[in-house]
Write a structure and sequence with these properties.
Number of strands: 0
Order of helices and strands: HHHHH
Distance between the termini: 54 Å
Helix content: 55-70%
Structural class: mainly alpha
Strand content: under 5%
Shape: elongated
Number of helices: 5
Radius of gyration: 23 Å
C-alpha cells in the first residue's frame, strides 16, 4: 500500500527500499493462508476459538518483536558526508 511504502522509505531510507520490499514480498504473498487456515480449523472443530488463539499468539509475538526493534543506523561515512554538505548558517559571515 502507499502508506506502507512511505513508512518504509521514511524508516529505512530510499536507498534500499526495493531490497526491503523484495524481502517482505513472500510474507505478503502468504497472507491468504490465514482465512484458508481459519476455515479449515472451523470445518474440523466447528469453532473459531483455536484459530483466534493461534492468530492472537502470532500477533502477540509480533508486538513484542516490534517493541524491541530499533531503527537502522546510518554508516558513519554516510553521516559524515551529510554533515560535509550541510548548509552554512546564514548568520556566518564569509571570510575576508
Amino acid at each position: 500500500s502507499l502508506v506502507q511504502n512511505l513508512l518504509w522509505a521514511d524508516y529505512f531510507g530510499r536507498a534500499h527500499l526495493g531490497e526491503i520490499r523484495g524481502f517482505t514480498a513472500p510474507f505478503r504473498l502468504i497472507s491468504p493462508v490465514g482465512p484458508t487456515l481459519t476455515g479449515f480449523i472451523f470445518d474440523r472443530t466447528g469453532d473459531y476459538t483455536i484459530a483466534f488463539a493461534i492468530f492472537g499468539a502470532i500477533f502477540f509475538v509480533m508486538v513484542i518483536a516490534m517493541a524491541f526493534a530499533e531503527p537502522p543506523r546510518r554508516p558513519a561515512r554516510a553521516a559524515a558526508e551529510t554533515e560535509a554538505v550541510a548548509p552554512v548558517d546564514e548568520a556566518t559571515e564569509p571570510p575576508g
